[in-house]
């Protein structure tokens, strides 16, 4: 695999500074039942890295300290971590909102037969990957048969009340382009998704998040192999919108890797660019330090979050109407 960090270090991206911490995004490990081309964490069935009990306990201590309102769980497939359910239940008992970054097909893995019911019982918000509403495009990006399983999973979630407009059972879908292009306008694509999934499969959901592909890990390496890396970076830079800088997720979010180390975002985590500070900041540092006002570590990949309508873990940063 080609290393992309050397291609991204030299940057003219504008400086960024942290606001008050609101979201703790925790990567529970890289094990996943899928191995998608665009995956920026290189997750897959063969990965062994998983968060240990000591760091899980630190996550709860950070939540108990107060200030963090949202626990955003990701992976890999976070649900495959043996401590996932206990962590979710403990966070919800502390009135912390929990988001599960779900690939949908995990609902059909052995031992996960009651996962959908568990998520509904604990009112966990689901952000589910579905990069297209056609089988060919999804299966090409995520593997044969993934689309059909995803549709079955969405139907199951709908029967439990997800995607019906109840904020306690919010269901959002995630779109990302197949290749090196900017995602289309979010509101218009959401209307297409709702029409196609509703008419063809009777599926309902609350919203669509469109995300730009980051030029790192598998996707970045593929671009280098195809000699398209420079062209994609040019696309991101020429579509930079400075208005998005005030809304990027790294201002109010800290990303935590499976070892408990801290980063400004999930993308920096995968590039090995830790949160600025002495040593290597860790979960335990959140118990004794306020990072508000601190400089955010940037590199050229940050243009992926500010190009066009913007891109974040919550989708577009503006509606694209300007």
Structural notes for this entry:
By secondary structure, the chain is an alpha/beta fold. It has a single domain, classed as Alpha-Beta Barrel (TIM Barrel), CATH 3.20.20. 33% of the residues lie in helices and 11% in strands. The protein contains twelve helices and eight strands. The protein has helices spanning 5-8, 53-65, 84-93, 115-121, 135-142, 146-159, 186-201, 217-225, 229-238, 266-271, 283-286, 303-306, and strands spanning 23-27, 70-74, 97-102, 125-129, 171-175, 207-210, 253-256, 262-263. An eight-stranded mixed beta sheet has the order 6-5-4-3-2-1-7-8. The radius of gyration is 19 Å and the shape is globular. The relative contact order is 0.19. The model has no long low-confidence stretch (mean pLDDT 91).
- Give the helix proportion (percent range): 25-40%
Question: What percent of residues are in strands?
Answer: 5-15%
CATH fold name: TIM Barrel
Secondary-structure content class: alpha/beta
CATH class: Alpha Beta
Compute the number of structural domains: 1
Largest sheet: 8 strands, mixed
How many β-strand stretches?
8
The named CATH superfamily: Aldolase class I
Distance between the termini: 39 Å
User: What Rg, in angstroms, do the CA atoms define?
Assistant: 19 Å
Mean pLDDT: 91
Number of helices: 12
The CATH architecture is Alpha-Beta Barrel
Low-confidence stretches: none
The multimeric state of the shown protein is: single chain
């Amino acid at each position: 695999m080609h290393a992309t960090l050397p291609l991204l270090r030299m940057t003219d991206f504008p400086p960024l500074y942290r606001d008050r911490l609101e979201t703790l995004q925790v990567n529970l490990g890289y094990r996943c039942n899928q191995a998608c081309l665009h995956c920026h964490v290189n997750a897959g069935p063969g990965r062994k890295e998983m968060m240990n009990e000591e760091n899980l306990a630190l996550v709860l201590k950070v939540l108990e300290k107060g200030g963090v309102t949202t626990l955003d769980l990701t992976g890999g497939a976070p649900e495959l971590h043996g401590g996932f359910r206990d962590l979710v239940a403990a966070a919800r008992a502390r009135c912390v909102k929990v988001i599960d970054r779900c690939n949908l097909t995990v609902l059909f893995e052995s031992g996960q037969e009651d996962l959908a019911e568990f998520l509904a019982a604990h009112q966990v918000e689901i952000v589910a990957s579905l990069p297209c509403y056609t089988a060919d495009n999804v299966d090409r990006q995520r593997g044969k048969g993934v689309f059909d399983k995803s549709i079955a999973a969405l139907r199951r979630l709908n029967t439990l009340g997800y995607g019906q407009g109840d904020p306690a059972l919010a269901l959002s879908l995630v779109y990302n382009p197949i290749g090196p292009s900017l995602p289309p306008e979010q509101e218009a694509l959401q209307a297409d998704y709702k029409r196609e999934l509703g008419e063809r499969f009777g599926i309902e959901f609350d919203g669509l998040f469109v995300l730009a592909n980051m030029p790192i890990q598998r996707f970045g390496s593929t671009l280098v192999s195809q000699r398209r890396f420079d062209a994609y970076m040019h696309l991101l830079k020429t579509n930079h919108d400075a208005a998005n800088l005030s809304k990027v997720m790294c201002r109010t979010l800290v990303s935590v890797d499976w070892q408990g180390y801290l980063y400004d975002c999930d993308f920096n985590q995968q590039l090995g660019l830790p949160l600025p500070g002495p040593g290597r900041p860790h979960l335990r540092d959140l118990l004794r330090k306020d990072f508000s006002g601190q400089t955010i570590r940037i590199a050229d990949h940050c243009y992926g979050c500010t190009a066009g309508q913007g891109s974040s873990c919550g989708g577009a940063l503006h509606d694209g109407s300007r």
